[in-house]
Design brief:
Blueprint lengths: L4 H6 L2 H11 L7 H10 L3 H8 L10 E4 L9 H17 L2 H6 L1 E5 L5 H14 L4 E3 L6 H11 L3 E5 L8 E8 L7 H11 L10 H8 L12 E3 L3 H11 L15 E4 L6 H11 L4 E3 L25 H10 L3 E5 L6 E6 L5 E3 L2 H18 L7 E6 L5 H8 L3 E5 L3 H4 L2 H7 L3 E7 L3 E3 L9 H17 L4 H12 L1 E5 L2 E3 L2 H17 L4 E2 L2 E8 L4 E2 L16 E2 L5 E5 L12 E6 L5 E10 L2 H20 L3
Parallel strand pairs: 2-3, 2-4, 3-6, 7-8, 7-9, 12-13, 12-14
Antiparallel strand pairs: 1-5, 4-5, 9-10, 10-11, 14-15, 16-24, 17-24, 18-19, 19-22, 20-21, 22-23, 23-24
Length: 609
């Protein structure tokens, strides 16, 4: 049976559940789960959440909780996505199929099975698939796409999400996550398909029933050898700014991969660079899809550093580093003057990296006159001031590295030299050939910076405080509200509607100087200034559901304030996210002002039912 798509859209959640129950084969991993849920009669809310919508395929691909249902990650939702992408690739011509697709995965539940199923689906559609023998970092996938010249890439990962989640990230031939245009084309092909009746349903049924895959049994599936790990690390290590006698390589360091894909490459990078006193959190070294010792494997959360801090105190570490399960995010803690570890937010680590790169290039007399960096629209403007001080242009993009690294071709076309890109959510991209955030290269540069400044008698904490002294005392705060399910999504929508229709004119006693609504896109001049018409001399910001409010600041002209906040719904999680930034005469005053602005805005938002 192949039900028409419009019929499926018209069904109620209960009817969709009945349809799935009828068509999932007996013996399928998720069949018993669904039957028990439906027969219990006590989980109507859970059943509705699984079927009230289909898991959307956007520019971040698929992401959701693992389980049976159209709003879950399972063999049928993933398999349909893989078949739809195969159809899209084949619609691009024979050359696209022959270029092939690179597929990677992280350590999560079903990640390896989903990746192997995807490889077989591509192969059955005449598309060559390159796979890794085990889990690999997301940035390595992005690099190998360009290295091999494939048409696309897929990574089975939910990045930093809780253990209940998994995801399906799609990439295109430029090594970036798919653009909106490509994602729309893929979505159209995916949504033409039924979950249980299409060209590769037999492969999906086999995997869902526990079939195992033997590498090499299909001529169109190639297992990549260790030389591709070496090429990736070589690209990272080529980013070194200082080496040898410029560094104190005996600096004590601690690293945790949070049971993810960063363990082997990060350790090898530290060995290659000559660090002699580094330590890995043993309990978090090897893969663990349940993240037993960490719970929520997000390095943005200070709680993820608990075991790292314990090890750090034992070995006297000056710097603690962490990557998330697919090793694209990277965060640090520094040993404070009181002997305790201080977590840095993504903006602060970004300040250190921007400064280290620019200062190092200038000292080596290799800083280009046409240098450019990229940050997201919700990342602190302090780094823009830093870049400007070195004669470098800081461009803005939408959040996500498909947008940040997606600016690289634009910059090249406009005779600009890409030097670095980052965003506040602990993502950093230093290599123009790795077009996604990369926790391994960020880790190398931060460890190198720590060793460099230690040789000069400074800690990274002292460097950060010096940057505040030089460029102004900024405060950064990025809270969010988690609102799950259909009701949560509807409430987030009402929140955005409320503040869009009734924008504040004053917040915490400060006038609102300017509001940017990004729903229709935005264009900046080279200095991040006023709204302009679309020209090739500026970097365009496409439309997105986000608002940004600039507030009154002493000495600031209209709209030029570094005190501002932004609001946007997350594209990958059931959250509405807030970003608060303030510049004041001291760090304490900035933190206090930020707190008052945050309280004022959240009180308005949380009042929306």
């Amino acid at each position: 049976m192949n039900i028409e798509k419009t019929d499926f859209c018209a069904m109620t959640s209960g009817q969709r559940a009945d349809y799935w129950k009828k068509h999932i084969l007996d013996g399928s991993i998720f069949k018993d789960e669904l039957v028990k849920l439906m027969e219990s009669g006590t989980e109507e809310g859970e059943l509705n959440d699984r079927f009230y919508k289909e898991l959307s395929f956007g520019t971040a691909g698929l992401r959701g909780k693992i389980g049976a249902g159209s709003n879950r990650m399972n063999f049928h939702t993933v398999g349909r996505a893989a078949q739809g992408i195969a159809d899209y690739i084949n619609s691009c011509g024979k050359d696209a199929a022959s270029k092939g697709v690179v597929i990677a995965h992280d350590p999560r539940h079903f990640s390896k099975e989903f990746s192997l199923m995807t490889a077989q689906i591509f192969a059955k559609n005449g598309i060559r698939a390159y796979i890794f023998p085990d889990m690999r970092p997301t940035p390595q996938l992005a690099y190998i796409i360009r290295l091999l010249g494939t048409v696309s890439g897929v990574n089975i990962t939910a990045s930093h999400n809780p253990k209940e989640y998994n995801g399906f990230k799609a990439y295109w031939e430029d090594g970036c996550q798919v653009s909106s245009k490509v994602a729309d084309g893929m979505t159209e092909c995916i949504f033409k398909l039924d979950y249980f009746s299409h060209a590769t349903s037999d492969i999906i049924d086999a995997f869902a029933s526990g079939d195992t895959y033997e590498a090499g049994r299909d001529d169109l599936i190639t297992v990549l050898g260790p030389e591709y790990d070496e090429k990736y690390l070589k690209a990272i290590e080529s980013l070194a700014i200082h080496e040898g006698d410029d560094l104190d390589l005996s600096i004590p360091l601690v690293y945790t991969p949070l049971n993810g894909a960063g363990s082997i490459p990060f350790s090898q990078m530290l060995r290659d660079r000559g660090f002699t006193d580094w330590h890995i959190v043993e309990e978090q070294r090897d893969p663990d899809p349940d993240f037993t010792t960490v719970g929520y494997p997000n390095p943005e959360a200070p709680a993820a550093f608990k075991m790292s801090e314990e090890l750090g105190h034992r070995v006297g570490a000056e710097l603690i580093m962490a990557t998330d399960p697919d090793a694209d995010r990277f965060a640090i803690e520094l040993l404070g003057e009181d002997g305790n570890y201080v977590p840095l937010n993504g903006n602060q680590t970004g300040y250190i990296l921007v400064n280290y790169i620019l200062e190092g290039m200038k000292d080596a007399d290799i800083l280009p006159d046409n240098g450019a960096m990229v940050k997201s629209i919700v990342t602190s403007t302090m780094s823009s001031k830093m870049a400007e001080a070195y004669g470098v242009t800081m461009y803005e993009s939408l959040t996500g590295f498909k947008n940040i690294c997606g600016q690289i071709p634009f910059l090249e076309e406009n005779d600009k030299k890409y030097l670095f890109g980052y965003e506040e959510s602990v993502g950093y991209a230093a290599c123009p050939d790795i077009r996604d955030k990369d926790g391994i290269s960020a880790g190398m540069l931060v460890a190198e910076a720590a060793a460099y400044y230690r040789k000069k008698g400074k800690t990274l904490w002292q460097v950060l405080m010096g940057l505040y002294e030089k460029y102004g005392f900024y405060a950064e705060d990025e809270p969010n509200l988690v609102l799950e399910g259909e009701a949560g999504a509807a409430r987030i929508s009402r929140m955005m509607e409320r503040i869009r229709k009734n924008p504040p004119t004053e917040v915490a006693g400060r006038r609102v100087l300017k509001v940017i609504d990004y729903k229709d896109g935005y264009f900046y001049d080279d200095k991040g200034g006023e709204l302009l018409k679309d020209t090739r001399s500026i970097a365009p910001v496409p439309g997105t559901n986000a608002l940004r409010f600039f507030l009154e600041e002493k000495g600031a002209s209209d709209g030029a304030s570094d005190t501002w906040f932004a609001i946007r719904p997350s594209g990958t999680e059931p959250k509405i996210k807030f970003y608060f930034y303030t510049r004041q005469a001291s760090r304490e005053e900035a933190l206090d002002a930020n707190k008052r602005i945050r309280e004022d805005i959240l009180s308005v938002i949380e009042s929306v039912e």
